[in-house]
Design goal:
Distance between the termini: 22 Å
CATH topology of the largest domain: Rossmann fold
Largest sheet: 7 strands, mixed
Shape: elongated
Number of strands: 20
Oligomer: single chain
Helix content: 25-40%
Number of helices: 19
Number of domains: 2
CATH class of the largest domain: Alpha Beta
Amino acid sequence: MKYGFIKTAAATPHISVADPSANVAEIIKLIEQADTCGVELLVFPELCVTGYTCGELFLSDVLMHSASDALNTVCKATVGKKALIFVGSPIWNKGKLYSCAVAFQNGKVLGVVPKTALPSYSEFYELRHFVSGRDISGSIKLCGQTAPFGTNIIFAAKNNDTVKIAAEICEDMFIISPPSNRYAQAGASVIVNLSASNELIGKSDYRKTLIKSQSGRLSAGYVYASAGSGESVSDIIFSGFRIIAENGEILAESGLFESGLTLCEIDIQRLAYERRRLNVFESYDSNSRTAEFNFDETGAELMRRISPLPFVPDDLKSVSSRAELILQMQSRALAERLKFTRLNAVLGISGGLDSCLALLAVVRSYEILGRSKKGIIAVTMPGPGTSVKTVENVSELAEALGIQIRKIPITDIVGKHLTDIKHSGKKDTAYENAQARERTQILMDIANAEKGLVIGTGDLSENALGWCTYSGDHISMYAVNSSVPKTLVKYLVSYESERVVKYKKALLSILNTEISPELLPSDNGKISQKTEDIIGPYELHDFFLYYTVRFGQKPDKTLMLALKAFKGKYDKEEIKKYLRVFIERFFASQFKRNCVPDGIKIGTISLSPRGDWRMATESSAKEWLDSIK
């Protein structure tokens, strides 16, 4: 484990029904394969030592003795292996037969967990052979060792108190109150499920939903391995379905009817942060027992995919549905505010992405309210840095949306103001910010004069970086984009360009315009001030924002993830450089975020001081910066 990642595998061996020696040979092959891959947690299916479909043979002394010998063989095969390994087997203990998860590591039996819920409906008849392990807490002699036996065992890493693992078996997950509920309350951060769930039409999707839901409810990792080929097909069939989930997200899954390994890493640090953040996990006095195991930090290469755009869904279908939902949220919230205040929307249009998205939300809100678009007060305020391209964008956007845009040039007004304050004429911060503040003053005064509500256009990324002028574009009466990061703004505008054909040309032109505040004189009508040349790529900053705020992650871990996500696009020194820029600007800009206007939360991250993010303005960034030295 490194940076809190546990390399995990769910395994489905080929089974020979009632032939433990053959089954163990297959199990050991997968143990060897997993060890080669650096696996630290390995989970096999329910009753894989014998096969799940043995029927009356489970009551046979022959099969029980053979299963016991097979477990001895598995135990010996784990010598020298670092993984914590869970194997499913029938276990005879104190005159009763249980379906169990047996935990091994490095030649030791760490614990044996019996199944709680025994299905005896439809095709299942487990109560005919097995006894429930509910509320059992004792010990067992197995493989020449004495180990804890019961349903209250937490397998805990000796050197890391966040690594706690618990086991449940198949039907245990399907019942009203799964054992994993109390395991999570007792501190378990990963649940493993040794299963033998047969395949039926629609059942795979149902299992997947349950696993996603349970991992999300528990803020836990969930590793599921089910029985597959070789089981009897007299009446039912097994698909060998395997899945690894984390906090409601599917990290890896197998296809149906495939044997082998499904591998991915579970981020224990992220889960620990999520539980701290939620602060709703009640401690549970379960009289749980701890079975300790060794867990060493390793430097194995990360297998799980790291998206370079964490705010944007990966697949196109999800992007469209997510984009529509976000635009609905923005426009319906704005419609409610306009309805309540009985005001019209007033906003500045620059020809850039953010003001475009805000205007799209305004247009939708007017449609919701049944108002005429003639009531939208959209104002463009060209200044010394305004380019020909953005002027054209404004004109095309107005025509596409069917609205009128007022034009109020600010060059002379700002020039007079700078003269009044005896400014030197140098193209410095005062020169730039005077333009932003003048534009805000114009919008505010129009709103007062014409019964309007000034709609802010700034986005979440700008709030995080402080890339806004205090008391300029930083201020509005309602901030419709306040929790939409820049990378998502692009996708929302792109979505609208595809949804409404008559918008397409204008929106594509805006999407192809470089991001700029346009506060420095243009270069022969072209943009001279490019935001990403100054502060760095927004895709990097949004990546840093996501992992810093959403998961409270250390910068060195974020750097490692960024190197994987942007491999081949940015080198390590570039990423380190802009990560430092992000940290420095994020900490330095809290005073701006302390007084931002209203604006609804769209996703899992908001920097509103009234909602998700409370931070002292004087907070030091030293420890965060030191982390990436």
